[in-house]
Amino acid sequence: MDRLVKDLLTASTISQNFLEDESAAVKTSVSSLLELIPRFQSIQKAGVEQLFNQLARPRLRSLITDIYKDVTYILDEDTYASSESLDVIRKRFIRSWGSVMDGFKDTFTENNYGVFFNQAVDMFVRLWEKFLLGMRFNELGAVRLDRDIRAVQSYLSSQTAFGSAREKFQRLQQISTLLNLDIEEDGDEFYNNSGINWRLTLTEARTVVALRM
């Protein structure tokens, strides 16, 4: 609507169809439509959020457990090599994510799909983080997790013109960083002296470090 109103105000349509003393009043009336745009956008966003909560949220809740069925991050050299070859997390994620999201892409406008997509990514990232906090990791497992996080982030970033998924993955990336510390390295010291702009609190960082084996 914003573009439509501005085009109408700058075009010759008003001056061609109204007398000069009427044109100012008409332009004022047309300009007043701009005040409705935030309200329309709010209603539109609320509608997309409602659809997301009703249709996508329940399916996303089961996505993580489906992806991680029979997956462990306690790996030796053989199981690590196998995980590299099979690339299970990335492949399962792409298949499961598509089953949830693909049906909506052609239904929404590009802008509304962007809102829907970002809500889905936000929810998935939170669920993934919570799930990882219930797992244990050895050295090779932490390396594998880092690869899995990067692969999923890269895939999501390639699927949308709405911006990179990098920011949404910052907490997950920081979890991976902590899990990949040398086993003898002090987590508190690293947290305080690394210079990283932490999205995790110190308490959360300690919880993550405790997952290492």
Describe this structure in words.
The protein has 213 residues and is an all-alpha fold. The protein folds into two domains: 1-57; 62-209, Methane Monooxygenase Hydroxylase, Chain G, domain 1, CATH 1.20.58. Helices cover 71% and strands 0% of the residues. α7 runs parallel beside α9 (139-158) and α9 packs antiparallel against α10 (170-179). The protein starts with a helix and ends with a helix. The model has no long low-confidence stretch (mean pLDDT 84). Residues 2-206 form the Conserved oligomeric Golgi complex subunit 4 C-terminal domain. Pfam families: COG4_C. InterPro entries: COG4 (IPR048682), COG4_C (IPR048684).
Short structural summary:
With 213 residues, this protein is an all-alpha fold. The chain folds into two domains: 1-57; 62-209, Methane Monooxygenase Hydroxylase, Chain G, domain 1 (Up-down Bundle), CATH 1.20.58. The chain has twelve helices and no strands.
Write down the oligomeric state.
single chain
Total of DSSP H or I helical runs spanning 4+ residues: 12
Total beta-strand segments: 0
Instruction: Provide the succession of SSEs.
Output: HHHHHHHHHHHH
Measured distance between first and last alpha carbons:
57 Å
CATH architecture of the largest domain: Up-down Bundle
Structural class: mainly alpha
Beta-strand content estimate: under 5%
> What is the CATH topology descriptor of the largest domain?
Methane Monooxygenase Hydroxylase, Chain G, domain 1
Summed over residues and divided by their number, the pLDDT gives a mean of: 84
Q: CATH class of the largest domain, anyone? A: Mainly Alpha
Please tell me the total number of domains: 2
Morphology call: globular
- Rg, please? 24 Å
Please estimate the helix content. over 70%
